[in-house]
Amino acid sequence: MTQPANNAPLDFFWFIPTHGDGSYLGSERQQRPQEFAYFREIAQAVDRLGFPGVLLPTGQSCEDSWITAAGLAAHTERLKFLVALRPGVTSPVFAARQTAALDRLSNGRLLLNVVVGGNPVELAGDGVFLPHDERYEQAAEFLTIWRQLVSGETVNFEGKHYRVEGGRLDLLPAQDKPPLYFGGSSDAGQELAAEQVELYLTWGEPVAQVAEKIERARRKAAARGRQLRFGIRLHFIVRETEDEAWAAADRLISKITDEQIEIAQSRFLKEMDSVGQRRMAELHGGRRDKLVVAPNLWAGVGLVRGGAGTALVGSPQSIAARIREYQAIGIDTIIGSGYPHLEEAYRVAELLFPVLGLDGQRRTPRRSIENEFGVGFYGNKRLQAAS
């Protein structure tokens, strides 16, 4: 993509809602089910609009990210796919074979999102029973083996969690080393990031909190002689005016009941052991009157949604100003989403991309269009306002 106005590099990804989509949180009204045809619509739209990649989520309620990405790769041209690499749920050797196959199938368009897990109840359903910090120890061993395999090495490894003898890949990925993305706010998570990954992700906290978090991660990486890139996961509600945007935000959560909020917040704080999830929940404490947590940063999504719970809300100019604040502290990648994801992808590309200096719709054949949407010409006659 081209450079934004302040000349700092910026990649703006989108999201494939493999757990379902809709116009209202907390309601089945105008809900869109998990259908591959709909995922394909979104993927083809964002590929055409100029988003360089998409995140596919993982979890019990989601379609499998690897299989879905394989299907979508056949229907897109440039789009990259950020899929979940899950230590503990699968073996490192099998994951390396999957990596190589999907990367070759997609012509080098695979990115990996390392997910160690934050919900012990869901992890137990997957057969994972390790406590929080020990899961990160296991992940470090997993990634050590995985990285050696996708680099073409023969692996002999014996650790606390894994033993491999003569492991190898006969068919390697198209890329030299498919990049690893990872988000984790705990000390154990940051140690893993500092040692193993290329890009460290954070959920959308206020700028000062994000700055403190990435500075800690940067120092940990530097102590190992490494450098990290940084990204942020946010929802977006962008409209032509501030009033329109905030009205859309209110509408999105207008069907949520107090009971739904109470159930969701109890689960986030009592059932999960994720430090990042706790930080998200603490931004608003489940209170509807505490949802604006920083300029243009709104925590309404996190009333009932786990994971990314904040949105940038406002006009293209105000949201671009907030993005540049994140860029100033080191963020170079945004993973965005919005409800519904198809329509909001168009709004972001058409309204926000031009303000950020991103190229957006790359296939526009020419700027001057001779129809009712532009001020064009038919022959030598200018279109009249009264036509």
TrEMBL record:
<feature type="domain" description="Luciferase-like">
    <location>
        <begin position="11"/>
        <end position="332"/>
    </location>
</feature>
<keyword id="KW-0285">Flavoprotein</keyword>
<comment type="function">
    <text>Catalyzes the desulfonation of aliphatic sulfonates.</text>
</comment>
<dbReference type="Pfam" id="PF00296">
    <property type="entry name" value="Bac_luciferase"/>
</dbReference>
<dbReference type="GO" id="GO:0008726">
    <property type="term" value="F:alkanesulfonate monooxygenase activity"/>
</dbReference>
<protein>
    <recommendedName>
        <fullName>Alkanesulfonate monooxygenase</fullName>
        <ecNumber>1.14.14.5</ecNumber>
    </recommendedName>
</protein>
<keyword id="KW-0288">FMN</keyword>
<dbReference type="InterPro" id="IPR050172">
    <property type="entry name" value="SsuD_RutA_monooxygenase"/>
</dbReference>
<dbReference type="InterPro" id="IPR019911">
    <property type="entry name" value="Alkanesulphonate_mOase_FMN-dep"/>
</dbReference>
<comment type="similarity">
    <text>Belongs to the SsuD family.</text>
</comment>
<dbReference type="InterPro" id="IPR036661">
    <property type="entry name" value="Luciferase-like_sf"/>
</dbReference>
<keyword id="KW-0503">Monooxygenase</keyword>
<dbReference type="InterPro" id="IPR011251">
    <property type="entry name" value="Luciferase-like_dom"/>
</dbReference>
<keyword id="KW-0560">Oxidoreductase</keyword>
<dbReference type="GO" id="GO:0046306">
    <property type="term" value="P:alkanesulfonate catabolic process"/>
</dbReference>
